[in-house]
Amino acid sequence: MTSLHVRAMAVWTARYPSLAAWRERAASEPSTPAAAILGARARGRASMLTRMISEVATTATQAASVELARVALIVGSAYGEMETTSQLLTMMSEGDGALSPARFQSSVHNAAAGLLSITTGNQGFSTCLAAGDATAAALLFEAQAWLAEHGGEVLIILAEEHLPEFFAHNETFEAAAAALVLSASPEQALATLAPGQPAPDEIVRAEHPELGRTPVAPLLALVDAVSDQKSEVLVPAFGAPLRIALRYKAPR
Amino acid sequence: MAPRTQPALAIADYSVSCALGVTRAEVAERLFAGHSGLVAPPFALPFTTLCGLVPHPLAPLSKAFERFETRQARLAYATLAPLLPAIESCVARYGRQRVAVVLGSSNAGLDTTERAFRELARGGKAPPAASLHDQHAYSAVLALIEALTGVAGPMWFVSTACSSSGKAFASAARLLRAGLADAVLVGGVDALCEMTVRGFRSLGVLAEGACQPFSSERSGINIGEGAAFFVLEREGDRARGSSRDEPALQLLGCGEGADAHHMTAPHPQGDGAERVMRAALAQAGLDASQIDLVNAHGTATDQGDSSEALAIARVLGSAPVVSTKGYTGHALGAAGAIEAALCLLTLEHGVAPASLGSAPLDTALPIRVLQASTRNDYKHVLSNSFAFGGSNVSLVLGRRA
Fold first, then answer.
1. pLDDT of B339 strictly over 90
2. Is the CB of B41 inside 8 Å of chain A's CB atoms?
3. Domains identified in chain A, total number
4. Minimal Cα distance from B266: which residue of A?
């Protein structure tokens, strides 16, 4: 089975707007992602989710020295464009219920992936997945299957924005995004992942002590495990969690 | 014949529910007889249109699963039921961890969220948190399928708007070829939602009457709904596990790519559509001349039909072309799967449906649109799905000789 070689990683949360800040837990005042790649016009209209995805996509591909205009892109989000969907639901309940076409086209799960493809001219493979707490596992499986067939690199991104008030009355988590550039080649790898072994006796939840019960938590745990050179990490999945072994060229 | 770049995959069984009916026999009968399933929408709207609504009441979920209750879940359950023996056979042969689920959807449980939001706007109670996970989210139907079948392999929804369930086939095929699963329940499901009907209206591409793909009088789309599920296995595995008289239906190739042009408008010359059709043919190892029928995306928008027609003409010349949107409406994230099922009905019955609504034909389009249902020895069908964000997919389905 294909191993996944981690070439680069990126993290964005409102209080930890970079991988370094996340790793050092150097909290800053809550901010919004710069998402410079989108340009001022598209950025102004973009949702928090789309901005976060654009931000970590740019940071991770730059760190890996791969082109965002050519890399295969796998975006995950359990809930997708919730804020935009909520705005549309509100529009539907007012007046004659007419919707904004700009909001409607931005409400699809692949809004960010589409915008990135259009912005960078990437005509290659991209997809968008959703699997609740198992979304991180889905990204790793899809990346593994893609690299087994095509080689090269793949950019995986997992992001969730705040839940709108409609759903957030008794469940909240902080907006967060994480990205990894995974390669079929071990060259310049930070770590090598061997995913896919079920761990039936373990219970793992998609939850982070600071961010709350966010589906992004398992990918952040993987980022931390790679940074800390841990030997394994458990990722929630349907059935049983996945046990992912991590290897390093020069262990500490 | 061009060399095949990937092995064919066996479609062991399949099931479909759409505006034409809820069994394969019912759908085939109405499809080949040229009967449209388009009807008035089931909710009040300040404009006129038709929708492709599943024509029978959908049974509620049983008590044990009522927390998942949405129209989306009912559609999924009704369409899954005929496949339970085939899934059970896969679990018995491969083990539950080796059976995956890859489905496409654009709406997830939005049909129920809309009702809850309306209730809230009227001063009612906000939905409980459980409804986010068990009803609204994509994962709700995955959890329902896990509970119903016991499968425990990789599971996810692909959600790339109208290419979702076409891309689910490509994703499932990769899982099988990479050895990450031994069988995949693949397909798509989307229930009719008011938001998508109003959304396409806001974009100015919703038809007031029945849609007319490839007609000079085309004026936009009808929104539909439905589900189609397929049990996909590697060809060799299937041959060992099956009886000889089963249909030898196959997924031969998938092509995926992006226009990188515009969020809602296709590339005017259909360049992105051309690339995915060529990629699907290459993966199938087929020449253009071996495609017996094209199931077009054909939603009946002015730009969409013309750009797709240009792409089809460049790749497949004068191969006969059908759009089935006049029967089913556009089922969005489920469209690719539903139309794959309609393609399999053509391969099994040796009949292609008429491209309903195509008269009067747009003679400026350089393709041969089938205007009457046609009997033939169909072996290879190519099916397109194109989406917002420029997400494109093309599938090649076949019947083993």
1. yes
2. no
3. 1
4. A118
Residue A104 lies in a domain: yes
Question: Active site includes B162?
Answer: yes
Residue A161 domain-assigned (yes or no): yes
Using the beta-carbon criterion (under 8 Å), do A117 and B97 form an inter-chain contact? no
Question: What pLDDT score does A134 carry?
Answer: 97
- Catalytic hit among B162, B193, B211, B254: B162
Task: Tell me if residue B330 is catalytic.
Answer: yes
In a domain, A239, yes or no: no
As a whole number of angstroms, the distance between CA A20 and CA A92 comes to: 42
**A127/B167 touch (CB, cutoff 8 Å), yes or no:** yes
> A217 CA to chain B: closest CA distance, Å?
16
Question: What is the ipTM score, two decimals?
Answer: 0.97
- Residue A248 inside a domain? The answer is no
Size of interface A-B (CB pairs under 8 A): 227
A90: chain B residues, CB-CB within 8 Å: 121
Minimal CA separation from A18 to chain B, in Å: 27
Chain A touched by B118 (CB under 8 Å): yes
Percent of chain A as helix, strand, coil, to the nearest 5: 35, 25, 40
pLDDT band at A234 (very low <50, low <70, confident <90, very high): very high
CATH code of the domain made up of B11-399: 3.40.47.10
Token duo for residue B254: 């998938």
Residue-averaged pLDDT of chain B? 95
Q: Over the range B168-188, which residues count as b (16 or more CB within 10 Å of their CB) and which as e?
A: bbbbbbbbbbbebbbbbbbbb
Q: How far is CA A42 from the centre of its chain?
A: 20
- Residue A180: is it exposed, middle or buried by C-beta count within 10 angstroms (0-12/13-18/19+)? buried
Active-site pick, B18, B90, B211, B297: B297
Q: Are A226 and A63 in contact (CB under 8 A)?
A: no
pTM for the model: 0.97
- Inter-chain contact B138–A169, Cβ cutoff 8 Å? no
Give residue limits of the domains in chain B: 11-399
Task: State the residue range of the domain holding A158.
Answer: 4-187
Domain at A26, CATH number = 3.40.47.10
State pLDDT tens for residues A8-45: 999 999 999 999 999 999 999 999 999 999 999 999 89
Q: Is B297 known to be catalytic?
A: yes
Torsion-angle region of residue A41: left (phi > 0), alpha (psi -120 to 50) or beta?
A: alpha
CA distance A169 to chain B (A): 8
Confirm or reject contact between B108 and chain A (CB < 8 A): yes
User: Given the structure tokens 């961890």, which residue do they identify?
Assistant: B97
For CA atoms B343, B344, B347, B351, give the dihedral sign: negative
